[in-house]
Each structure stands twice: as C-alpha cells, then as structure tokens.
Amino acid sequence: MATPLDPEMFDPLCPSDLSPFRFGDKWGGMVIRCLEGGPRRFSELRVPLRGVSAKALTASLRRLEASGLVRRSEQPGPPRRVEYALTALGRSMLGPIEAVCAWNREHWDELLDAREGVAHPD
C-alpha cells in the first residue's frame, strides 16, 4: 500500500492558473505529481486536489490517458477497484514539471505583480 498523499501537497493559495505553463490542462501537472509515487485511486487523488470537482478531475484523467501519460486499470470483482498510474511517457514528464515548478518559485513575485498590473523594470 502506498503512503497516503499529503492533503497539503499543493498550496491552496497558489493558483495553478498563475503559471504560464500547462501540462494538459489546469490540473494535469498536479495529477502527474500525485501519481509520482505509484498508482492511486480516484478518491486518493481528491485529497490533495480538493479544489477540483469530480467532473473536472475525471476529464483531466481522461485527457492524460488519451495522451498516453496515464494508464487506467480496473481490477474486477466486488468491490470494483480502479487505479491510475503514470506510464513511462508520463514518468518522463516529472523532470520538466519539476523545472517548471522551480521556475515558478523563482518568479512567483513577478507573476503575482503581473497579474495585479504592477510594472517591473527589465
């Protein structure tokens, strides 16, 4: 059994739409980060992604699956068990995502100021 995901994995004050980079959709990069440690069930993903609706998370998972980044597997029998895991292609996204996260941390104040219309000298 995998270690539970940290409910505080993503800062709720950190709007993902502030980043100029996207991995699939608004939630795609965060879903990939959640799957970094191994397969997860939908309900497990909802813990750190508490700001996403079930409908939006389902759509994001489907897009990631259609792109070949995530694999959905279903184990038969009662109860039915569905898990999502990164494919090798999805795992190859972890490095670029970490680079984007580092860039976002370095330029966070500038991104916030730009959003608020504050000019910065170049």
Automatic annotation (TrEMBL):
It comes from the Bacteria. One of its GO terms (molecular function) is DNA binding. Keywords: DNA-binding, Transcription, Transcription regulation. Residues 14-112 form the HTH hxlR-type domain. The keyword Transcription regulation applies. It holds the Pfam family HxlR. Gene3D superfamilies: Winged helix-like DNA-binding domain superfamily/Winged helix DNA-binding domain (1.10.10.10). This is HxlR family transcriptional regulator. The lineage of its organism: Bacteria, Bacillati, Actinomycetota, Actinomycetes, Micromonosporales.
